[in-house]
């Protein structure tokens, strides 16, 4: 069988906008909007100000727009920062087939490189599709091993999607795309999950760094470097051996309809928390003063992550089931604002979280079922129950386009309209100028 | 308060640079000398690296100086380029830290003595993490020096920048969170991207050192936590009990240099072969090599005919040395390797594990060879690697090699540099950052 990177690269080279499934074509702008909404929310929160300032100071050739700023950075740096800030709010999309966050690595790269090469809107949209397809095709081959090693899958295989997108926009032929994909695979971050559960700021770079690698790998490949063709299949020392303790022998081809499997997030948390939130939402409104205990039974992986999480950090709290449940009960929603430094230090919120008890439910083991059972025990002795076998906005009840646009507008606030308009015009746009104009707008008083 | 591993390492590194003895500083000087020489020879042998072509001369701050061209660029990319440009020669030794430390020292306008201290400190930390997790990385088919070298690269850069110990710990943890997987397949299958391995770690380490005061840090438990690097590499079920960090003898003084332009796995057999005087090719019937298990594993993994793959192939390397009458740093080219005499001889060389090298808990880097001549005579020899721990390279040998590697180059010379000299002045980088 032809090596996986060769098959994926042929697919990437061959993607044609006009030949895509109409449902996929319709999904692309919505996926871009969803990611841009996350980015705007991150910039509005003003996270990582000192780091962003350092990246701006490092400057370099002005190639691509730093969103929320009227500043341009080298394409790889713009993709890095925009991806990291977008990832911070933990609402970017994912594909459970490969445990990949496609949007956060693909979209910043598509816009950064598209700006450099002055790609048309259609070319950018097509490159986005190629990126989603590549990330999942490569990710599916490794996901089992990444999970077994307790690594953060999206931070690792995101670089394949980012590379595919960049390589496509740079016009690399199939053999060079393969070289770029395999080069990216060798530079792929090891991505320990510890950064997420312990709430380290570098977790946000789990969104941005793969984007950085993608741009760099494509540029370096164009300049002559190559990765190993048998990256996945090498008998003793490929990434399959590293993560699966065996070479990859049964990889599937890229799926041109992969975007239709993408799942969007209704809550600003790790996916592991979301079944529980979906169940609790069925019981709203709840007066927190009346609550004695909230019992949660959910799948073991989610329980373990929650147990390990540092819920007193903005990042770590997003894997904490008790903290997220408390936020939902108190706020009626779980958006980015629930995880600010101020909020995670809020004693009322943490006190309610302390009354949430989380247990493993063996009948909800992923990947078959990512569900949750919730029992709210009120001080009066009354109990209320809810059970879900799937998360809101997953395959069972996917988000509608209107729901996603509403999410975008909520996250993007007052800068939403011009961005939404530009994204909707993208398919007929000769370049990215209109969208970049919309994205250069100052998004926060704390913008540099 | 119990410190995490990176916190403990950073705490030690923060103060240890003031205690680096002359012997360790001298050992660091040897390392700098060798790396600078390798970079220049690499540029002659393989031309400027893609990284340098992409980034040199472009804007960006803080800046550092490319050793070969003396052009400046964004410091992390300079560190990447300076390490990568000579990688194809496969001569680089020691912890991944010289390029990142040098760039950081330029950025912060430190002296050459500061640079040497930073490197010595980083070598200590490299030795600790490699002895703990190196075998785990190897067993996963990963290139341990590149994957774990991020820690020494960040340490050296952070010490050169004089980061506070908390910021240094943050830089170490951040860099290790994104450390590259570095599968060995790039080497064994001869991909040119292998030349990025050492440099990428140094670019990453320096980046996080430069971001040290921005709050962009990783988890304190990035090495020993139950979802951390160590747990993954050692396939542990839960968090790890890390070995105690006990810096004692300055590991930098034990760094061994590479006499030959190939993977260390080939060195003992090559040394043994040279010890019998590199016989004429036409007189050799067969060569049987018995060496340590990891060397045999690497030899068997070597795949394809590329120069990079040949550099870890014991059979091809011995054949190349015999056909060429020795191994100079320009030996591994496609043209030379295509000599049919090499393929013919390679067919008559076997490589097996010598059981006597398996018994020790510590890797025994030795090889025994048996050469059978066409006339029926049999000659045997046994050796560790030339310039190995038993007979380390002398100062004179290293300096002569530096002169050889830089012949015809306008290279700066670290050998006689006074420790008070600013690194910027040494590399001719002007105002730097």
Describe the structure.
The complex is a heterodimer of chains A (448) and B (433). Chain A starts with a helix and ends in a 9-residue tail after the last helix. In chain A, a hairpin with a 4-residue loop joins strand 1 and strand 2 (71-73). Chain A has helices spanning 4-14, 22-45, 49-58, 75-88, 102-117, 121-148, 153-169, 174-187, 194-197, 205-222, 239-244, 274-281, 300-308, 321-331, 341-344, 347-353, 401-412, 416-425, 433-439, and strands at 64-66, 71-73, 291-298, 356-360, 372-378, 383-388. Chain A folds into two domains: 4-265 and 400-439, 2-methylcitrate dehydratase PrpD, CATH 1.10.4100; 271-388, 60s Ribosomal Protein L30, Chain: A, CATH 3.30.1330.120. Helix content of chain A is 51%, strand content 7%. Chain B is of the alpha+beta class. Chain B has two domains: 5-257 and 393-427, 2-methylcitrate dehydratase PrpD; 264-383, 2-methylcitrate dehydratase PrpD (60s Ribosomal Protein L30, Chain: A). Chain B has a four-stranded mixed sheet with strand order 4-3-5-6. Chain B has a two-stranded antiparallel ribbon with strand order 1-2. The mean pLDDT of chain B is 95. At the A-B interface, helix 3, helix 8, helix 9, helix 10 and helix 11 of A face helix 3, helix 8, helix 9, helix 10 and helix 11 of B.
What's the structural blueprint in terms of helices and strands?
The complex is a heterodimer of chains A (448) and B (433).
Chain A: H1 4-14, H2 22-45, H3 49-58, E1 64-66, E2 71-73, H4 75-88, H5 102-117, H6 121-148, H7 153-169, H8 174-187, H9 194-197, H10 205-222, H11 239-244, H12 274-281, E3 291-298, H13 300-308, H14 321-331, H15 341-344, H16 347-353, E4 356-360, E5 372-378, E6 383-388, H17 401-412, H18 416-425, H19 433-439
Helix pairs in contact in A: 1-6, 1-8, 2-4, 2-17, 2-18, 4-5, 4-10, 5-6, 5-7, 5-10, 6-7, 7-8, 7-10, 8-10, 12-14, 14-16, 18-19
Chain B: H1 5-16, H2 22-46, H3 50-55, E1 63-65, E2 72-74, H4 75-84, H5 98-107, H6 112-139, H7 144-160, H8 165-177, H9 185-188, H10 197-210, H11 229-233, H12 267-275, E3 284-291, H13 293-301, H14 307-310, H15 314-324, H16 334-337, H17 340-346, E4 349-353, E5 367-373, E6 378-383, H18 395-405, H19 423-427
Parallel strand pairs in B: 3-4
Antiparallel strand pairs in B: 1-2, 3-5, 5-6
